[in-house]
Amino acid sequence: MRQPEDTKTLELLSEPKRGRGRPRVENPMTPAERQRRSRRMRRSGDDGEYSLSSMVSSDAFFALSRLAAHFGLNRQQMLENLILDRQAFVLDRLKVDMPEWDAFFNRDKSQKLL
Fold first, then answer.
1. Locations of Basic and acidic residues compositional bias (predicted)?
2. What is the pTM of this model?
3. Contacts from 44-51 at CB under 8 Å and sequence distance 24+?
4. Crossing angle of helices 75-92/58-71, nearest 10°?
5. 70 φ, ψ to 5°?
6. Bigger pLDDT: 95 or 80?
7. Residue extents of the structural domains in the chain
């Protein structure tokens, strides 16, 4: 042990050096567990986002890309806008008391989605 005023002498028993890199976690998660947690966190978001995966023609893909670039949006934002705009178009033509209105919103769950 050295005197507090002594600035020249080194400590004899210094703290052991920590290893290089990030410290190890006691119970590391497997990649599958990490992915599962990531999906669960994405699904539990307040905005209620859902994953959508679909194959489209190259014409549709590039048209979507051009539209998105034109409006300064990404493809996801552009696709959401197109879908919601088209839904608004349909709803403007339906009256609340029409059977088509009920059919639009209360679709039978057994009907196959396209």
1. 1-18
2. 0.55
3. none
4. 90
5. -60, -40
6. 80
7. 55-114
